[in-house]
Amino acid sequence: MKLPVLATALFALGLTQAQAQSCEGNFSVVGTPMLTGLTYKTWDIVPKRAPARVLKDLGAAVSAEGFADMRIDNATSSVLAIQETSGSGRPQHLRITARKSGSGTRVDAVFVVQQGQVAPEAYVRDALCRVISGAQG
């Protein structure tokens, strides 16, 4: 009977560690550079702040990162923006959502780069995490 107790304890420990992971630790990339589009993702929890307040601060942080055509969509609790830095006329898209999570707000950020384009992974990770930390208040 000790095995189920141990398994339960390890499972709970794993959940605690996953929840404590930082924005940088939650970062991932899906896709093959130049061959497919790339999707950069990360998320973090903003403690003790409501999604509506977080959303406003996220909008300001997105603007500070140099994104264009930024808009806040209150209906979907998201910030949408584009960035065109290659001169190709093919924009990259950013979508950040803010959803209630416990006593705080979970912020998910997704940055999509089209096929044939690349963005330095470390730069994207740092920029997305700067935007999310801008919502900390």
From TrEMBL:
Highest taxon of the lineage: Bacteria
Keywords: Signal
Signal peptide, first to last residue: 1-20
Protein name: Uncharacterized protein
